[in-house]
User: Fold this.
Amino acid sequence: MINLDRDPPAIETGIPFYRLDVTSEEDVVAVAQLIACDHGGVDIRVNNVAIARIGPSMSFPLKGWDASFAASSTFRRSMGSPMSRRGSRITRPRRP
Assistant:
């Protein structure tokens, strides 16, 4: 497990931490490379990237909505490409 965030955790968790600004493509690419060097890559990715905003999501201005989507997509691409080259696949639950 690796903790990625803009701000360091308030308490020591023992989980490796990497400072990451998800709005910066350069940061995302650099952190993906650091993780590959330090840990041999990503085995499982839980995509929980977001730009925190207060209020109902449907009331966000389109510019903010687009920024959040872009951050999530950039993260998926930067972390997913190396995983794909190593043979990883996207799995989905079976439908009932």
Summary: Residues 3-85 form a domain with the Rossmann fold fold (CATH 3.40.50.720). The longest strand covers residues 3-5. The helical segments are 25-39, 62-85. The first helix runs from residue 25 to 39.
